Amino acid sequence: MSTTNPKVADAPNSNLQKDPDDWTTGDDPMTGAQASYLKTLSEQASDPDAFAEDLSKAEASKRIDALREKLGL
Length: 73
Hints:
Elements: H1 32-44, H2 57-71
């Protein structure tokens, strides 16, 4: 019996990191959690233009990643 957890295993086929452009639901509107987090990050980064209410899930994810990098998180 394998003791490897596929949800956390760092394997080539791992779904832990998937490019937002490849998400099947990437064109759906961003989630409430994404909107809240993006709004918070944009305020912390003094970058209000990073937030927009009409973003897709994929675009919100990309902006969150960019702001996290900018803030060193």
